[in-house]
Amino acid sequence: MAASKPVEPQSGSSLPRWQLALLIGTPIVLGVGAVYLWNRNKTKDSPGKRNGERTTPEGSSPLDRAQGAKNKGNKYFKAGKYEQAIHCYTEAIGLCPRENQTDLSTFYQNRAAAYEQQMMWTEVVQDCTQAVEMNPRYIKALFRRAKALERLDNKKECLEDVTAVCILEAFQNQQSMLLADKVLKLLGKEKAKDKYKNRDPLMPSPQFIKSYFSSFTDDVISQPLQKGEKKDEDKDNEGEAAEVTESSGYLKAKQYMEEENYDKIISECTKEVESGGRYIAEALLLRATFYLLIGNATGAQPDLDRVINMEDANIKLRANALIKRGSMYMQQQQPMMSTQDFNMAAEIDTSNADVYHHRGQLKILLDQVEEAVGDFDECILLRPDSALAQAQKCFALYRQAYTGNSQSQVQTAMDGFEDVIRRFPKCAEGYALYAQALTDQQQFGKADQMYNKCIDLEPDNATTYVHKGLLQLQWKQDLDLGLDLISKAIEIDNKCDFAYETMGTIEVQRGNLDKAIDMFKKAINLAKSEMEMAHLYSLCDAAYAQTEVARKYGLKPPTL
């Protein structure tokens, strides 16, 4: 789909990527968790249960009297009489000797539970804080405080608490993981909304721009200058009659495209539009395209709207504008509007292969795989030589078979990849998608061969080096080689946000949190959409929360 990263499988993992940034295997902090569970079994404390109740007659010591008050509070709690329960827990807190920190932390946590039932969030935070100060790895108190902090809209501290809980529970509790995911997404969206609105426009690398335009075959504005379109001075030099009496900003912009002088294109298109030249529709579409490439959707939309509404314009221009606006809507998480634009493009230009190709990618993102395959088939029917559509159709079939756990269909899809690379040996995308499928199937050696083919065909494609680096980590656990390949990607394209993101994730796993945060910040500055930036902020916030948890509680997941 236009202006988006290639669609990739989830590599057999359904975990959120912030969690993968912390999780290095199932047995996270297993030793800590086991010790904690052993200690907790010695003194159970949940309101509504007869945990830790003593048989010693009430009144034999201050601690016994405190336990008696707590037990009475538990009965009130079970009966839903929270005011009385709070009174009893308060009495227990007052009676308990200060040196009995474990018991005292239990009484505070129990009173916090009663306050929680009354939605007294500030009191919940205060009591849980007392409990955690006495017992820093008190999971119930940490999680209860996290939920109260969320209610108080204190997302930063909520995230720190729930991160500690996730680590202590070895990522085994669905509730705490869902809360962490929710808070990270909210924080990411808030930060991205402000940052993206005020960001400085940034032109992507030439490699990215060329790759973007190569995904279109019916795009008038991306075609090389034709003989009759050359600038006046070029025509005079060739002894040809000048067809354009004035200098055309659009034709200059096209020349700059051929020269990869991309920074001048928007201004030249603006000259064409403001002068009322003969290429207004083309200039509007080209300007909108580069606005999208630098992440300025606000600037792009009016230009796309104008082209779409120009009924006398070239139908290919209008269809291309609809594809790009539809892709923009998808990046803005407006799938219905995106679908409407793609459908309209198919109605006005039924023979445009690009419409079906990019709509197929949209359908994959929407998990409408059968419809995606149908669109790719239509694209292939119109352009049998479209290697990209052939490869992405195979990927769609593979994904459908993989998620449906059908081994026979998986093999059919893999055979399809073999056919694609045989018929289109110069299609790098075919090798790349096949390599991802092979990695899913743990055929690592052959996947590595496919990535090598990609690099031979496109040595300047940084993304391939990142994928090959990740493969080395998964296949050989070769951290040094994996990092070298990702560093090579950054050397090739210092604007490759995917490389910085991946490097940051690995540095989290190595325990180098400050370096990880630095990598995530670099990726944030390169994000091509607000949605992508929000995701990157989530990763950065997850790493930062881990630094705070390590500082406060000494909790660290194991490192590579």
From TrEMBL:
InterPro entries: TPR-like_helical_dom_sf (IPR011990), TPR_rpt (IPR019734). Residues 41-70, 224-244 are annotated as: Disordered. Keywords: Acetylation, Isopeptide bond, Membrane, Methylation, Mitochondrion, Mitochondrion outer membrane, Phosphoprotein, Repeat, TPR repeat, Transmembrane, Transmembrane helix, Ubl conjugation. GO terms for molecular function: mitochondrion targeting sequence binding; protein transmembrane transporter activity. GO terms for cellular component: mitochondrial outer membrane. GO terms for biological process: protein import into mitochondrial matrix; protein insertion into mitochondrial inner membrane. Gene3D superfamilies: Tetratricopeptide repeat domain. This is Mitochondrial import receptor subunit TOM70. It comes from Salmo trutta (Brown trout). The gene is TOMM70.
